[in-house]
């Protein structure tokens, strides 16, 4: 599905709303939204990605049945735009529909799966579904740790790009998702390549890659 060029609020030139009907439905009627403070006794996994100071933020709580390894419940809160709300709402439906996904299946959810179920998202809003995906993975890893299944914890392989500070490509990816879109804001957040500028070319290449990937 090809969507028209939208402004940052999802509006087309002239003021019309150009998101898909499914996106609108999940924005106006979000599913599994957690209102108020969570009752920690009702969940056994929590994940958070992003920061309200820099842009979108996602919080995800899951309740996993340890005997079946299925996610019985997923609740969420997000600080963000219509795409962020709709993406997280749809993800919660995908995870819990039927008998609920197993935790292994939850790790296989991709941003494209969420976008497809929503009927598409503007290119500059794809990062919203990425944030939800990452928050869910963190919640599942938190469940593994709480249930002492440490061998199941999944950690992304990372490449060190600045040995002086041990900053990795994954650190840069997370920083971009949290709103660092230029070298100045990236270095303010990570202090990467400040002491040794020879690492700057690799840092700038990764910065450009992730900004283009998530923000268009």
Give an account of the 3D structure:
41% of the residues lie in helices and 14% in strands. The chain contains eight helices and five strands. The protein is globular, with a radius of gyration of 18 Å. The relative contact order is 0.14. The N terminus is likely disordered.
* Average predicted local confidence, pLDDT: 84
Percent of residues in beta strands?
Answer: 5-15%
| CATH fold type of the largest domain | Sufe protein. Chain: A
Q: Kindly, what is the distance between the CA atoms of the first and last residues, rounded to a whole number of angstroms?
A: 17 Å
Major sheet attributes: 3 strands, antiparallel
Shape: globular
Instruction: Give the tally of β-strands.
Output: 5
Strand order of the largest sheet: 1-2-3
Helix proportion:
40-55%
Radius of gyration: 18 Å
Low-pLDDT segments, ≥5 res: 1-17
Topology of helices and strands:
Blueprint (H helix, E strand, L loop, with lengths): L20 H8 L16 E6 L6 E9 L4 E10 L2 H15 L6 H4 L4 H8 L7 H21 L13 E3 L4 E2 H9 L5 H8 L9 H16 L1
Antiparallel strand pairs: 1-2, 2-3, 4-5
Helix pairs in contact: 1-2, 2-4, 2-5, 4-5, 6-8
